[in-house]
Specification:
single chain, mainly beta, 11 strands, globular
Length: about 120
């Protein structure tokens, strides 16, 4: 059974940091492209960052470049999102996504974790 379980969300003040984790199981994690998406209140889901399988190339939305870092640990089947210098506009539900690089029908989502940036 495929599972993606996000953790690490919460309430943080502007300028603060959070580290999200997404633990994967039920598929060959190292073969998949991993990504973080977010959905702000009342808005559509958007791509935040992605990381390829091998070699680990990364891509970031312009709004988070220089502040967020995506990484993966294939030995732990986990992908991370380090978020620094957080802003109120980063408030959203953050989702983890796994996509097979060739067989795109093999796409999986986590349940999401809430990140709230507020003073």
């Amino acid at each position: 059974q495929v599972q993606l379980v996000e953790s690490g969300g919460g309430l943080v003040q502007p300028g603060g940091s959070l580290r999200l984790s997404c633990a994967a199981s039920g598929f060959t994690f190292s073969s998949y492209v991993m990504a973080w998406y977010r959905q702000p209140p009342g808005k559509e889901r958007e791509l935040v960052a992605s990381i390829s399988n091998t070699p680990s190339n990364t891509h970031y939305a312009d709004s988070v470049k220089g502040r967020f870092t995506i990484s993966r640990d294939n030995a732990k089947n986990t992908v991370y999102l380090q978020m620094n210098s957080l802003k109120p506009e980063d408030t959203a539900v953050y989702y983890c996504k796994a996509v097979h690089p060739v067989l795109r029908e093999y796409t999986y989502w986590g349940q999401g974790t809430q990140v709230t940036v507020s003073s």
